[in-house]
Specification:
Blueprint: H1 10-22, E1 32-40, E2 46-54, H2 60-72, H3 77-86, E3 91-94, E4 101-103, E5 105-110, E6 116-123, H4 128-133, E7 142-149, E8 154-167, E9 173-177, E10 183-191
Antiparallel strand pairs: 1-2, 1-10, 2-3, 3-4, 5-6, 6-7, 7-8, 8-9, 8-10
Amino acid sequence: MNLKAPLPSLAVAAAAIATLLIVPVSGQNVKESFTGFAINLNAGPRTTTLDFTIERWSTDAERNQLLSIITENKNPTDQLLRTLQRMPSVGHIRTPETLAWDLRYAHQSKLDEGGRRIVLATDRPMGFREVANQTRTVDYPFTIIEIRLNDNDEGEGKILAGTKIFVDKNKNVVLENYGQQPVRFNQIRKQR
């Protein structure tokens, strides 16, 4: 052991301690990237490649906060949207023709038959004209993506763009699309 070696600077030591305190060691922040093929059958079939990256999974506290807003409010849209937009990014999503859009919620659970189910959520991009004219579509501000992957991280899912979230009279969480079918999300695979 070299006793004459210089001690690390206070800034380096503080950065190392901060990293240990901020970054959980539980595997919470394992980065995963996926690609898939989106098929939109609304207003004529259109297809594109869709890539998304998950940089961290949402915490239980974040999940519970969103669920309580949905279940405790008759019309949770505005409060849910503001809360979701304030959450730190969990990753991003993009097509080859667009800039990346931040994902605000990512949750995974195991499937009984093996593999896993991933649910992603974010606010959806809205154009200037849509917001300025306050068309009815602004009442559907969410994008929800549900993906089912096998043990090889391959699978399919659905994309609900332009969605409203509420609880019905039977206390069921309802995802209502603005007059369109969900976008099919096929041939999803993890990028290695």
